[in-house]
Amino acid sequence: MSGSFVGICLLGIGYMALLFLCALAVERGWISTRIVRHPIIYTLALGVYASAWATYGSLEFASQSGYGYLAYYLGIAGAFLLAPVLLLPIQRMTRTYQLSSLADLFAFRYRSRWVGALITVVSLLAVWPLLSLQIQTLGEAIGRLSDNRYPALLALAFCAMIALFAIIFGASHTRLHARHDTVIATIALESLIKLAAMLMLGAIALFGIFDGPMELQSWLESDGLSHQTGVTALDAGQWRTLLLLFFAAAFLMPHMFHITFAETLSRRALLNAGWSLPLYLLLMALPIPLILWGAQRAGANPEALGSAYLGFGLNSSVWVEALVFLAGLAAASGTLIILSLALSGMILNHLVLIAHPPSHQPDLDRWLLWLRRGLIATVIFGGWLFYRTIGIHHDLTSLGLTSFVGMAQCLPGILALLYWPGANRKGMVTGLITGVTIWLVGLGWPLVSHHSPIVIIPPGLEMLATEPTWYIVALTSLAANMLTFILVSLITPTSEGERAAAEACSVDAVIRPKRLPLLATNGEECKQFLAQALGREFADREVDRAMADLNLSDHENRPYALRRLRDRIQANLSGLMGPSVAQDIVDRYLPYRRDGQTATDDIHFVENRLEAYRSRLTGLARELDELRRYHRRTLDQLPIGVCAFGDDGELLMWNDALGKLSGIEGHRVVGAHRNSLPPPWCELLGSVLTDEHERLYKQPVDLPSGRRYLTLHRASLQGNDTGRGGSVILLEDHSELKWLEDELVHAARLASIGQLAAGVAHEIGNPITGISSLAQNLRYDTDDPAILETAEHIQQLTDRVSRIVDSLVGFSHGGRHKHALEVAPVTVHLVIDEAMHLIHLARSRQDVEYRNDCDADLCIEGNVQQLVQVFVNLLSNARDASPIGGCVMIDAQRDVHEAHITVTDDGPGIDTSVRDHLFEPFTTTKAAGEGTGLGLSLVYSIIAEHQGHIQAESPLPGQAHGTCIHMWLPLSEKDGDATHEPDSDR
Amino acid sequence: MYVYRIMLFLVFGGYLLSPMLMSGWATPGEAWYRPFLIWGILVALSFWLEQKRHLDER
């Protein structure tokens, strides 16, 4: 060997320095986040799977079993091709419940902290040979390059550097379920380096040793045949078993689980890995036979080198040796970093925290952090010890297969977790213990003790006796594991909690979260309760973090929101200290209030989740969801208010119309208890819910928009087999109807008075006519100028009384409904005078001056009484709006074929919001009780009936106040040459 | 969902038929790169299916 001790040290240190530099560059932001979070980086990080087994172990395996080595790559490729149906459901669960390891997932599904501990122990036992394999290849490679000078110590030194890297960049904070860009980017760099090194070695073999693919092919068919005599192809059964083992390793191996699920990567990135990871592995696998055949052609001695290290025999160049070493170092260091991070988290959450619960730790964060760092160092050092004491006596294939068969014992458990809700804890534990026991005595024990394996061959399968041990153990352990699991699950009962967790984990989950109020009634109380377990500062931070995640305010007190807060706190604590401890803490310190009521389905939560998962629904489920959305839209957009309450008084629905009426948006109140609704809704809805009658008519409610009259209808939702009961309430706004009724009553009263006035006027008319006649007679009976003057005065006064009486009678006839409008030429000036006269009779606001500037000849076509009604309404409005001493001006001009009449006042003007609806019924600017809002609506109708139109202008041009009502009415044919008395129909 | 079914079919079909890959190691008349060629085709197919699935979900 031409390598030197110093050279190998420099190469190793240089490589580790590169890793630290890359990590630092990512951490300091010298590399753009866009690059760091690119899907290619994620795929390369998943390349951590290609451990030292891929660079050295595969060579050894290929030299023994030919293409059998491909099982290592094709198994995981198959798992990632099935990412949408296999890996995505696991990713969904780990994200939702903040599960960061296989032990977390099992503890969550099988609802037991002991299950988590068991999976951790099994993982440790199974993974240690793989951990040792990484360090062993490092030690062996160092030994070959440094002429066997201190390989163990150098390997330990490399382990120390790798541990330091993992501690500094992988355990910088306590949360396990978070994206560590630094680690991901560094592992991606390592994957790139090992891929480049392997491809270069393959190219050296193909083009340096052979003269290209054709020459290789001809060598294989001639001289190469003699070199392949030791190759024994795997039979179909062994091959399929290997595929299954490596398929399972893709998501069971702690480092793969950590990269795939604990690092919070996007769904899209995982789906992309479905094709990009198999491509990466293809490129990693391609150079293996080239290197093997190249070394054989170059005359490398597999006995002396070891078939795993045949790459060193390609040629004696320093660069080739450096490439082989670098490929192995990159593969081993990446696996060691991620394995140590994953295992330290599992040991911490499922062994240490279970044995020593974290209650009453003064600085919990710091305690957890240092504990994890210590565990990282322990795991790597433990791997080195395993290598020195046990691994060194075994080849890579034995170590690797022992590890993969061991981890595969968790396969039945995880498949049941996804696809068999009927599986239970007892079945899983007994199955796992059975499988692990067979694995331990068949593969584990011979590894440790150098004794012959104890292989159990079931009766009837004696033909397996000649097969390799790993194959028999893999088959028997997995078969026993699965059979025991299924049998025990079928004959033992499953707890309620486990059933709920099974539903949450199942791919076809029908999740029905229950609705119960918490004992804590707001965020502050949550902090107080949690502080008993976690300390005040830690509890404050966790609750604040959960509230920020959910966008909840500090004053939040809705039961629905508090339940979501509890779930989020549990998920966050799960990411920190594992699901078992998190569940214990939350169950104990944030309990539900169970005052005799049964839990019902949390409809609102279910609906929100359906909305979130909508894009994933297909077929019938999608059709049903479309139907649900249609019904939901129908209810939301109903033009009357709808709200629904559960049996427990929790508000489940608040539609858009009710939101508009109340000024309270649905998302602010849905999930609240009816007693905590803002006034007046709490009392109003409470009264209809508790009232024995199902209807409350025209209840007066004071809202920001003014007093409204609401009619409430209640219907009970009969609880069917799903137990979803409650009440639905319809709220109709009957304010306008109520005002119209009031107005009708008022109008009826006025009509009675009008009839009375008409009767009185008629009665008065007769004596007045008599007085007028007598006064006229008096003029003929005397020549006394004084008496004649008195008679003249009497006649004038009786005329005036007659005019007043005629006006009253005429006005009382004006409002009557007529089938067809009777029109005649009308002099505008006289009509306005008549209206002014009537206004004066009211004897209110005598301080306002009226000025009739209309042209005396201007004549329009219309009904006198209705036009008088129009001007009475307009003038009285103008009078009410005018200030003290104000002036109302009426003007009329000819405008082609129309008369343009204006009524202008110098009042404060009309608000813009009112102006747009001025001529609509019930629009008024007057104080409540002073105006009906019907006057201008009537004016509009009359003008429209006269083929005219009306507009309001406010404020006046060039002024900040004042209002001008413009009317355009058709001119009469007799305009300018005739006048018509306004009282023509008297 | 149809894309997923195709993927399931491919993977399980491949699992059952894959032992045939093993026969080519240094056998005269068999190109040494044949398994990698098949693997490459499988990768291209899964890339195409992934693009199709992505378009379907948009």
From TrEMBL, chain A:
Membrane topology: Multi-pass membrane protein
Annotated Histidine kinase domain residues: 759-973
CDD domains: HisKA
Enzyme Commission number, as recorded: 2.7.13.3
Compartments where located: Membrane
InterPro entries reported for this sequence: HATPase_C_sf (IPR036890), HATPase_dom (IPR003594), His_kinase_dom (IPR005467), HisK_dim/P_dom (IPR003661), HisK_dim/P_sf (IPR036097), Na/Glc_symporter_sf (IPR038377), Na/solute_symporter (IPR001734), PAS (IPR000014)
Coiled coil: 603-630
Domain PAS: 627-671
Keywords noted in UniProt: ATP-binding, Coiled coil, Kinase, Membrane, Nucleotide-binding, Phosphoprotein, Transferase, Transmembrane, Transmembrane helix, Two-component regulatory system
Transmembrane intervals: 6-27, 39-59, 71-90, 111-131, 151-171, 183-210, 242-261, 273-295, 307-329, 336-355, 367-387, 399-421, 427-448, 469-491
The protein, known as: histidine kinase
Organism expressing this protein natively: Aidingimonas halophila
Extent of the signal sequence: none
Chief location bin: membrane
One cellular component (GO) term of this entry: membrane
Gene3D superfamilies: 1.10.287.130, Histidine kinase-like ATPase, C-terminal domain, PAS domain, Sodium/glucose cotransporter
Family according to the record: Belongs to the sodium:solute symporter (SSF) (TC 2.A.21) family.
Catalytic activity: ATP + protein L-histidine = ADP + protein N-phospho-L-histidine
Gene Ontology MF terms: ATP binding; phosphorelay sensor kinase activity; transmembrane transporter activity
UniProtKB/TrEMBL annotation, chain B:
Keyword line: Membrane, Transmembrane, Transmembrane helix
Membrane-spanning intervals of the chain: 7-26, 32-49
Name the record gives this protein: Uncharacterized protein
Organism: Aidingimonas halophila
